[in-house]
Design goal:
The chain has helices at about 5-10, 15-30, 80-90, 90-100, 125-135, 140-155, 165-175, 175-185, 195-205, 210-220, 240-250, 255-260, 300-310, and strands at about 50-55, 60-65, 70-75, 210, 265-270, 275-280, 285-290. The chain is of the alpha+beta class. It folds into two domains: about 15-75 and about 210-310, DD-peptidase/beta-lactamase superfamily (Beta-lactamase), CATH 3.40.710.10; about 75-205, DD-peptidase/beta-lactamase superfamily (Beta-lactamase, 3-Layer(aba) Sandwich), CATH 3.40.710.10. Bound molecules: 6-diazenyl-5-OXO-L-norleucine. 6-diazenyl-5-OXO-L-norleucine binds near residues 109, 126 and 205.
Length: about 325
Amino acid sequence: MSNPENQEKIEINSSPLLKVINELHLKYKSLTEGTLANYIPELAKVNPDLFSICIVTVDGQIYEVGDSQQLFTIQSISKVFAYGLALEDHGRDYVLTRVGVEPTGEAFNAIILDEQSKRPYNPMVNAGAIATTSLIKGAGATERLNRLLDMFRRYIGHDVFVDISVFTSERSTGHRNRAMAHLMLNFGMINQNIEEALDLYFQQCAVMMNCRDLAVMAATLANRGANPITGEQAVDKRYIKDILSVMYTCGMYNFAGEWAYKIGIPAKSGVCGGIMAVVPHQMGIAVFSPPLDSRGNSVRGVKVCEELSQRLGLHLFDCSGSQI
Ligand code: DON
């Protein structure tokens, strides 16, 4: 849990939050490092200058700056929410037999399984996410997709849609993910119907949202699974600790250790250029800026979160207090 004294300061006078994100937006706008994800051809067409920051507090205040209405596909950030649904569908013990919770220290698309158990290492890397998605219950592909979309609706507060161009772009080029699915089928970690599991995984990655939606989703996780705008329970609160733990240890891939050390809050990135961070019992943070570093994390997103964490005293283990 984060510092109660910081929470008090932020809630009593919340306008500094807007000031801080405006300053960070201005400061990092000129940072043009990084490259667009081009292994999914549709993602390479995105405007690299798009940039937005949004914070949603657990009492439903929204602070946003920049292109916060711009839609993008959620990509790997979806893995967090699919993991929650799989936990609700099967319970913690069963899900743990199919997907581990160990960081890999490897790239998000590494073709590795745990030597002994043959499980994928964790639900945040591609192999683990495909296995997780294959666990989602439903009588057929349409029902499974509808259950996923309805879950996103609960987190965001409005209907969501799949970007068909991004979905088909990834479906026709996702050979590496297909190879991982075959490897897991070989070890009995996912069932026979791998094309259906892959389609659902590619569809969840192609769900469209904007930066504000992403911050509402993060705030829902911060708010014990209840959407702070609509009040709807998006996920069973028993699983919040599981979800946030894997985000904290694995959400930023082979940058997860440094992220935990420097920034110190559970987070998840996607090759869309989004980063979502959760400050338990306080707020959800989202940054969108498409150019990525070598680990697949948004360059501006990492910088903004690092400075936000320092200035607001958000690091879960920081005892020195807020700077604003
Ligand atoms: O499976 C993939 O490669 C993409 N749909 C998602 C990867 C992703 O976002 C990794 N994030 N940094």
